[in-house]
Amino acid sequence: MGSENKIKLDQKDKQILEFISQKARKSVAEISRKTGIQRDSVIYRIKRMESSGVIRFFHTVIDPVVLGYPVYTFVNITLHNFNNQDEKSFRGYLKEHSNVVYVAKTTGKWDYTIAIAARDLADFDEVMWNIRKKYSKIIKEYDSASIIKEHKYDYMVDLVCKK
Predict the structure, then answer these.
(1) Are residues 90 and 56 in the same domain?
(2) Are 35 and 92 found together in one domain?
(3) Were both Cys, which of 29, 73, 87, 113 would link to 146 (CB 3.0–4.6 Å)?
(4) Domain CATH number, residue 24
(5) How many C-beta neighbours within 10 Å does residue 45 have?
C-alpha cells in the first residue's frame, strides 16, 4: 500500500482499535461504554475501518502448543530458475497445505517466508521434505528458525494508536 492510500485515523478510531485489539469479541455496547463513543458512531467507524482496509479481519490467536503443535517454525526460501506458473503453483501448494499456517512473499535474500506448525520435529521434517521434493527444481535455498517463546504479538496497534 503506497502513501497515497494512507488512511487517517482520529483519536476515536484509535480508541476503538486499541480496545478491539485487546478483546475483539466485545460487543459494540461495551466498546461504546468503555470508550465513551456513541454506539452508532462505534458501528459506523468499525465499518469504515473495515471497508478502507485498516481492519483486515477479526480473528482468534491460537496457541499451537496447546493444540499439540509445539514445533512452530519460520522458514525462509529462495527460489531460482522459475517462471510465473512455477511460482503460482508453489504459492498455491503452500497456501493449501494444512501445516503451513503463514505464507508471505518477501524482498531481500529470501523470496518467501512461511510458518509451519508441526506435532514434532519428525512431522516438521516430513512437511519440509515434501515441499522440497515437490519443488526441488525451483527451491535454491532455505533456512529455518523455530519459535521458542513469543514476547510480543499485537498487530501494530501500539504503533498506530500511540501516536
Answers:
(1) no
(2) no
(3) 73
(4) 1.10.10.10
(5) 22
Fill in the amino acid letter for 104: A
Characterize the bridge pairing of strands 112-118 and 71-79.
antiparallel
Q: Do 12 and 55 sit in the same domain of this protein?
A: yes
In Å, what is the CA distance from 78 to each residue of 90, 136, 142? 12, 12, 6
Residue 33: inside a domain, yes or no? yes
Which DSSP category does 66 fall into? T
Secondary structure (3-state) at 63: coil
pLDDT tens for each residue of 66-104: 888 999 999 999 999 999 999 999 999 999 999 999 999
Nearest CA to 80 out of 141, 130, 133, 129 is that of 141
Q: How deeply is 73 buried, as exposed, middle or buried, from its count of CB atoms within 10 A (0-12, 13-18, 19+)?
A: middle
